[in-house]
Amino acid sequence: MKKKYYAIYKPFNMLSQFTGAENASLLGDLYTFPKDVYSIGRLDKTSEGLLLMTNDNQFKNKVLSPLDKIEKTYYVQVDQEITNQACEELAAGTIQIKHNGKTHQVAPAKCIKIESPNLPERSVPIRFRKDIPTSWIALTLKEGKNRQVRKMTAAVGFPTLRLVRFSVGALTLGKMRPGDVIEINPNEVIPNWNEK
């Protein structure tokens, strides 16, 4: 089996899978992937950004393993002007979210306020309210529970409006555009992977 590794820029409103309802937007719409290639983790339908795909289970498990703590950075547009206190709370590792019906205390993270990042426009624009500002943060996590970022920002009072995964490990979106698919070397994500 030839090991294959891909990075895709998952567009808004696309499922992170190959099968779905007849009119659903699916990964197979972007590219003809080999039959044994699947996504490493997922992004919600309404989330965008970097999604890795491979047929190398060892690599997939390494990226997903909570023990290896590979960082993923998200650019998050939130409702209102986020406060320093909310950023500190997001980073502190004290927030509790519901996951699979249980309470989960999130791990410490990194959170910084950023200027509006240079991202492609979303296919469906964020609703715009003239009197209510929005702001952006870069949130870096070492775990990835279902809808975790959205649950975390809601917990501190700043609901997520737009969510873009910018990086996984050492690999970033770079100059990719929504819908792009590129073949990558796993060393771009985990340096020295091929030497293991």
Automatic annotation (TrEMBL):
Pfam families: PseudoU_synth_2. The keyword Iron does not apply. InterPro entries: PsdUridine_s_RsuA/RluB/E/F_cat (IPR042092), PsdUridine_synth_cat_dom_sf (IPR020103), PsdUridine_synth_RsuA/RluA (IPR006145), PsdUridine_synth_RsuA/RluB/E/F (IPR000748), PsdUridine_synth_RsuA/RluB_CS (IPR018496), RsuA_PseudoU_synthase (IPR050343), TruA/RsuA/RluB/E/F_N (IPR020094). Keywords: Isomerase. Residues 5-155 form the Pseudouridine synthase RsuA/RluA-like domain. Its EC number is 5.4.99.-. The keyword Flavoprotein does not apply. One of its GO terms (molecular function) is catalytic activity, acting on RNA. It is an enzyme of class 5 (isomerase). Signal peptide: none annotated. One of its GO terms (biological process) is rRNA processing. Belongs to the pseudouridine synthase RsuA family. This is Pseudouridine synthase. It comes from Brumimicrobium salinarum.
